[in-house]
Amino acid sequence: MLGGCASVALQPPGPYANMTPTQAVNTDYVGARVRWGGKLIATEPQAKRTCFTVLALPLYSSGEPRVAQTRSLGRFVACSHGFYDPALYARGRLITLAGTITGFTTHKVGGYADRIPTLKAGAPHLWPIEPPVRYVTVPAAPLWYPIYIVRPPPPKP
């Protein structure tokens, strides 16, 4: 059931524009439908909505951010209707949002002022935290000394 909710949140009707947040700023494109994701920088609940500041990363076809990337695609702010708890939507978590570019805002990073796009987004999709690697002990016949086998995380789609 949760998978069904995620697919609705990540796939609103219509195709997505093939552009990054940096490209959107450079072209001043407003009104494009996009699906962006990355690492959460900040979550700010307001009266009737919650705004997320995100460091954009490339996405897999599933919409999950590719965390192994060393370069970001820019930053963006996406606002979704309703309250989303900042304790759950915490800094560093992976998130994907789909919505429409509504404009641009100036965002300060230290002493640097950066112009970033703003989105009117649907429900955000918060990706689960990867479980730690598990070690499994198996007997080694005939000596019965433990052998440790590392199980890698499942491959990404």
Structure description:
The structure is a single chain. The chain is mainly beta and 157 residues long. The protein has a single domain, classed as Nucleic acid-binding proteins (OB fold (Dihydrolipoamide Acetyltransferase, E2P)). Helix content is 10%, strand content 45%. The protein has helices spanning 2-10, 21-27; strands at residues 33-45, 49-57, 75-81, 94-109, 112-121, 125-126, 134-140, 145-151. Strand 7 (134-140) and strand 8 (145-151) form a beta hairpin. 25% of the residues are buried. InterPro entries: OMP_Slp. This is Outer membrane lipoprotein.
Keywords:
mainly beta; two-stranded antiparallel ribbon; disordered N terminus; five-stranded mixed beta barrel; 2 helices; OB fold (Dihydrolipoamide Acetyltransferase, E2P); about 160 residues
Rounded mean pLDDT score: 83
CATH fold name: OB fold (Dihydrolipoamide Acetyltransferase, E2P)
Q: From the alpha-carbon coordinates, what is the Rg to the nearest angstrom?
A: 19 Å
Which structural class is indicated by helix and strand composition?
mainly beta
Classify the beta-strand content into a percent band: over 45%
CATH classification class: Mainly Beta
Protein name: Outer membrane lipoprotein
Organism: Acidihalobacter ferrooxydans
